[in-house]
Each structure stands twice: as structure tokens, then as C-alpha cells.
Amino acid sequence: MSWDQDLFKKTLDFAAKAHGPQVIPGSGAPYVVHLVKVATEVLRAADGTFEVDFSMQCALLHDCVEDAGVQLPTLTAEFGARVAAGVSALSKNEALPKAEQMEDSLRRIQAQPREVWLVKLADRITNLEPAPPHWSAEKRAKYRVEAQQIYDALAPAHAGLASRLRAKLSSYA
Ligand code: NI
To answer: Is pLDDT above 80 for 173?
Structure first.
């Protein structure tokens, strides 16, 4: 497997700066830890069937529009239209009712190259760590239903990531 370490570092620096002091809810760790975990899920899944650099970039940047207010034209200028389109699909459309946001995003991800599908699988694998203690049982149950929805929509993209998500789902309390 080959991937571009300099591109990884450039993208990581941009993402770290964009998210600034943001922390992972519940853990308090710098947000960039989440981004690196998602990127390493993608790197680990590399099997020669997808473009690792593109997928890894989308992984590092996947929350920077939704959570850090980065504008798509900025992403296009820094990383090109393809990465910007991938990140856009991975971002919820907050103009929609909350209940429709995931399905809408999944539909837009499905219209993107497979590399973008992998990021969503990797994101949810990463997020199915034990839920933050302040989450209610109802919120945990909802999160699990959502994870199943992601699995159903995107599992065909990568057998290895799909099987990791399935395992996380079955052990998620
Ligand atoms: Ni994420």
C-alpha cells in the first residue's frame, strides 16, 4: 500500500487548525484525535481497490464543514473540488428536519465515489466506542439505529470495514 505522507500532514495540519480547541464530546480529548482515528481506519482498510490518499483526506476533513464552519470554497481552493464534494456529502444539511438529516447525507454519500463511503463507515466504527456517560439510554438506542442505517446503506463499499462496523454494533451497549 502506498500513500502520501506529506499530503496526510498537510491535511492533518489544516484540520487541526480548523477544529482548534474543540474536544471530543464525553472524552475531552482534542478533536483531532477523532479525525486521526477515522483516517487510520481508512488506512488500515487499504487493499489496493480504492484511492487511499483521497479517502484519507476526506477522513481528516469530514467534520470541518459541519463542526468547524469551514466553507466549501476554502476546501476546494486547498484540496480540490473532489475532496470538497466528498466532505460536503459527509456533512449534514442542517436546514432539514433532524430526523431526515442522516438519510439525506447517506443518499448524497452514495452518489460519491466509494472512497467517501469508506469514511462514513470508518467514522461510525470510531464513534461506537462506549457512549459518553451523560448519554441517555434513549440517545444510545437512537445512535445504534443510526449506525445500522449507515451499515445498511454503505456496507457494500468494503467488506473489511463493514465487518468491523458489524462487530462494533453488536458489542455497543
Ligand atoms: Ni466524525
So the answer is: no
- CB within 8 A of 157, min separation 6: which ones? 114, 117, 118, 121
- Measured CA to CA, the distance from residue 141 to residue 104 in angstroms comes to 20
- The structural domains of the chain, ordered by start, are 5-171 (1.10.3210.10)
pLDDT digits (tens, 9 = 90+) for 105-164: 999 999 999 999 999 999 999 999 877 788 898 988 988 999 999 999 999 999 999 999
Q: How far is the CA of 123 from the centre of ligand 1 (A)?
A: 5
CA distance 142 to 136: 10
Distance 30 CA to ligand 1 centre (A): 13
Distance 35 CA to ligand 1 centre (A): 7
Note the pTM of the prediction, 2 decimals.
Answer: 0.94
